[in-house]
Amino acid sequence: MPFCVVVSVGGQYIANVLNAPNIAYAHLPHCLLIPFLILVLTPNALLKMRFRQLALTSRELVLIFAMGLIASIAPDWAMNWYLMAVITAPHYYASVENQWETKFFDYLPDWLVLDYDAARGFFEGIGPSRPIPWRDWATPLFWWGSFIVAMLFVGACLVVMLRKQWVEHEKLRFPLGEIAIHLIGAERDGKDDSAWPPFYRTSLFRTGFITMLMLSLYNCTTYWTGWSHFPIMGGAADTFILTIDPAYPAQVFRLNIFSLCFAFFINVEILFSLWFFQIFSTLQAGYLNRIGMTSTTLVPGGLVSIEFIGGMISFVLWGTWMARRHLWRVVCHAFGRPSELDDRNELFSYRTAVFGLIIGFLYIMYWLHHAGMAFLVIVLFLFFLFVFYLAVARVMAEAGLVMIDLPINANQFTVGMIGSANVSTPTITGMALTNAFARNWRTFTMIAISHAAWFKDYLGKSDHGESMEDKEKATNTKPDEVDTRWDPSASFFLWMCVAFGIGSTSSLGYLIWAGYRYGEQSLRGGAIGSLGNGFYAMAIAWIDNATRITELEVAFLVGGGIMTFIMTIGRYLFYWWPLHPIGFVVAAAAPIRSAFFPFFLAWLIQVLLLRFGGVRLYQKAQPLFLGMLVGYLIGAGVSYTIDIFWFPDTPHLYENFF
Length: 658
Prior knowledge:
Layout: H1 2-18, H2 30-50, H3 58-71, H4 80-93, H5 100-103, H6 116-124, H7 134-169, H8 175-184, H9 203-225, E1 240-242, E2 251-253, H10 257-263, H11 268-291, H12 302-322, H13 324-334, H14 350-370, H15 375-399, H16 410-418, H17 425-433, H18 435-438, H19 447-459, H20 468-475, H21 492-518, H22 527-544, H23 551-573, H24 581-585, H25 590-594, H26 596-646
């Protein structure tokens, strides 16, 4: 539990003090990996050398890592930034010029936002002598907290219902989970009693670690010397921009070692599709610009983005259709009908998942309706929201794109599809409030909880890879006779709930305290206020600009769905089919476009390794990239430490995904 506080509060502190927005951005973020390597894994390895009986086991390390992962979905960009912007901004930033008060304040629920005085104290600070008005925060935090719990529980229910389909039927790899297992060393067999994990003991790991650590430390010295640095962090100064024509979007080339190391573990077919569809997107967007075909629905990215979103919707619908038999068996099992399914290795029972899903959705719909949204709009909005969430979770389970963001926000897309002219002002006001979660790609997208479920499944295996069911069949024992004393997953979901509770309350409490103590406008240049200003300005844009979806936009939406369907069928029918639908589905996401070069480079390296040495050579090269990742992370920790003590007023941006 202290580790959860370190992850959440530490991530929020670094983001505030050092203006490091990417500390909690990735799906395995710095605020998790750096303290785990330095404060947990290394001390445990040293302890294991001298006092083996006191050291943590591999399974205990997996549990700690999973708790840290759940705690990391709260700080800064993960959740707090969006939530605080929605709660604090409207009354403080309202003015005669922006017309918020006259256009939508009558429909703004006062139980979800702060009043002017409380918001002013947060943005401007009140100093250490005056007490923080916690009572003013009680009502909005309670109602937002209840909604967040309902959203997370619904996501967990969907994960429980789909995990077996993804892991056992579709054989999805969960690459981020595999990388975490390699970092922890949990894949070692029972005869391996070495202090360090197997990967760490290879010469390639040490080569990658030392090389990347030296490059990172050299870059840290440039903070004082002003010398040129090695372009390994993906910063704006390290970017090469290629523009074919003014009508065509610029193609960005930048090397981000963090992205490259994770990309090396992605399937080569997916890597090819990722960079191929970025080129496809550039050429298509440029051609549409040259002939004057544009979108009018205020959906970011225009027609090309709409096309990719059509592919995302098709991707989820096809996946749901493929899982129909499994989902039906889950429902039958929940209602007590005979079933071959066994839910003992899930986060909780199928019955809890099915009925929890129903109850959770009913509460979410009630909450949104009470916030002012029309019922029919709520239904469409929730459909798009969970389609996007499921799509990103499913993509992560197969591809492990560590930096992926939502390609589109569900509230913007819903208004775009309905047409702002057909949406009432109370509903638009409610849509502005949904920016607290509709834009969120880490907390609510089920990525963290699905990986936690994958970790639990991993913990449920014996040393030889046997599941609990296999052990029962092999030993002819009953379920309650199987020895589970070695298994730390008995209360796994409870520990995940504890991790999120500690992570969210501690990081949010620290952020509120820091705002009143120093003034949010002095933290990161008032980023929360700027974000909130943009959220509510979006509502004004919807009110003032009456738009409706056009036939052309519908055609691109349907066309994108058809293209994804063709690619999916092609993969099933032809072994040589080169294009994976994931590359098309995520093509509209900004971080994916920025990672074009790491994807291309990882693909090229994999192709060469597989061509000249086959799978064995590729597997032998994995420790090199894992060592590079660890060296890069240690270098990042050194950089953050240097900035805290030597450059607190002019910190350096160590990591950048844009």
